[in-house]
Amino acid sequence: MRAGAAGRTDTRETPEDVGSELFRELARMVAALADIQQLRSFALPYPGYAQRALDRTVMHCLDIGETPPRSLPELWEWCRTRPADDSLFAAPASLVTPGTTLVHPVGRMPTRSCLEVASHGPDGGVVAHARGLLGDLEARCGTGERYRKCRSFLARHPVVDQRDRFGPGWSKDVWSRVKDLYGPLPESLLVDDEFLRCPSCGLPALPRNGPAPVFGLPATDADIWCEGEECPRDTPPELIREPDQTWILRRSLRTFLVLPHRTEESAREVLDRVGIDHEALSGPLPAYRLRSTGTGTVDVQVYDRLQPALLAAHLSGSAPSADRVLVVVPDALAGRDGYRKAFTDALPALLRHRLVLTTPVNLVPDLERARREEKDDA
């Protein structure tokens, strides 16, 4: 929005505005297309949402004097190679980190950042889908204890094969409640009719160039992608040779339930070790209310989000349920250059005191700091 010569407000969008919104639309398109079989062989007619995104991209390219993509496969490749700060999009750093792509360069699947961008908007996108599934599960479970068992099972079992179903600790009761949240392995995640699973996060893995070289690659080869994206490569991916006997959790739950679970467990272990009582809050969010923390209420909420500004926007969408919320993210993320600043800068000024970004390692020190600030304010 710009001021005109006579003091009028010019509401016309700039090319940068159009590019930034196009980036968000393409994120939604990539997230939706990723659930379609045979991603790399799209055929006409394209799905309506994909055709609209392609048409908008073509029009934007013509407006800025750039040769447009000729097809949906070419547009998919653009999403793999052209980052958010490319001149085509010019998405600001206040939205996503420069260098962010929507399709992973190795796995050729939606990046975690893509799913976070696709969730940025009034409908909540992929995050809202995950929350809806968990909300339905909670209603079916009837009791908080039963729901927590089911939720923990989902977080620990993003992939279920025959060995799991006949192994120790298997609960038929839990499986009967959660099995509808799983489906068969999609062809896009298979390599020569076999499936690779990351030994660290338990999520799907893929090689860069298809099936031929994967099983001979050294364990540290960077050309193996997993959905978690951040996992070490010190052990090779696990091979599952009978994918028809394997079931996989819905994508939205793999991203927004499975990935934060390790951080959630670390945070709970810290609280238990120092003797801070806590109770799980109802709802799909991994959240806890701390007891005996002073006169004000303190909640702990756990996330694993690569984009700090989008995390701040998500938290700003509704008023905090407590006087102070400790927002716990993985230590490795919070330690990234600029992550904390981007998170804080994206928060409304009134919430910067109430929403405190922390990690499992810093959870107790940050809680003590919040207590001191509460006393000072009293």
Summarize the structure.
The chain is of the alpha+beta class and 378 residues long. The chain folds into three domains: 2-124, no CATH class; 142-249, no CATH class; 253-377, Trna Endonuclease, Chain: A, domain 1 (3-Layer(aba) Sandwich), CATH 3.40.1350. It has helices spanning 15-33, 48-64, 72-81, 112-118, 125-141, 144-156, 162-165, 172-178, 251-273, 308-316, 331-334, 339-346, 363-377; strands at residues 2-3, 9-10, 159-160, 182-184, 190-191, 194-197, 204-207, 224-226, 238-240, 247-249, 278-280, 287-290, 298-302, 324-328, 355-358.
Structure description:
The chain has 378 residues and is an alpha+beta fold. It has 3 domains: 2-124, no CATH class; 142-249, no CATH class; 253-377, Trna Endonuclease, Chain: A, domain 1, CATH 3.40.1350. The protein is 40% helix and 13% strand. The chain has 13 helices and 15 strands. Strands 5, 6, 7, 8 and 9 form a 5-stranded antiparallel β-sheet that branches. The longest helix is centred in the last third of the chain and has 23 residues, at 251-273. The chain starts with a strand and ends with a helix.
Distance between the termini: 43 Å
Give the C-alpha Rg.
22 Å
Number of domains: 3
**CATH-assigned fold name of the largest domain:** Trna Endonuclease, Chain: A, domain 1
CATH architecture of the largest domain: 3-Layer(aba) Sandwich
- The gross shape turns out to be globular
Instruction: Please tell me the overall pLDDT.
Output: 87
Q: How is the biggest beta sheet arranged? A: 5 strands, antiparallel
Question: What percent of residues are in strands?
Answer: 5-15%
